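Can anyone check this?
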Amino acid sequence: MLLLRLIDFAGYLVQLYVYVVIASVIMSWLMAFGVVNPYNNTVRAIWQGLNAVTEPLLRPIRNLLPNLGGLDLSPVVLLLGCFFVQSVVLGTLRDLVIASG
């Protein structure tokens, strides 16, 4: 059934986005601790690509969270939201499609 495949594809996209958010967090740690050189063109290109994908969702979350100094919990909130969408929303849609047809 086409609708089931679309729901599964959306689940794969959410899972891919989870990996991108985790990669962005790890990259920020590597840059903060001086493990990778942020002035390297390849590193800068990867960092800009990760930011272009994650910042549109992280920025509003950062605006809602209180200022905790150097601690940024917005990726954790975003990952929890992704897991909620993946398991509850898409899972419920999948169950409804299976039950109806």
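Reply from J.R.: I decoded it. DSSP finds three helices and no strands in the chain.
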